[in-house]
Amino acid sequence: MTTSHLAMVFSVLSLSLYQCKTPVGYTETAEVTFVESESPGLVTVSSTGRGEKSHLAEFDADEKVFRTIMYQGLPQHTGLRLPMVSTTSGTDEDAAKRFFEERDYERFITAQNADSVQEYKRPKLYVVKKTITVNYDALRRHLEKEGVTRKFGL
Prior knowledge:
single chain, 4-stranded antiparallel sheet, globular
């Protein structure tokens, strides 16, 4: 084979491998969508999480739900239109940090279902789409008790 043939084969191979690549660094978005609220105090949402292992992707999806409810709010749901935690309210930030580090949020999940799990080989990445039901009334009471948020009206 001549040098030009080798260069052409290398170029084609490089381009084909580049197109198969799945980006690892993704821009984190809320990726949380309101599904329904079948009874007072409960909300069902869908969430997408990513991780190097499937269970890490599930944790990511769970955490996104709670970060969205707590810090952004769910505009489609009247009871959660506004975020539960104000970043300027002088609340206990250490308690909020522990809430996520210790996965304390898991006790407020009343139902969950992994709708799909996708695995990408290069680089190793799992993408999980889940449906999660959250008891947001109990969550709100817990956050008030821990000093993460103030009681409504105070």
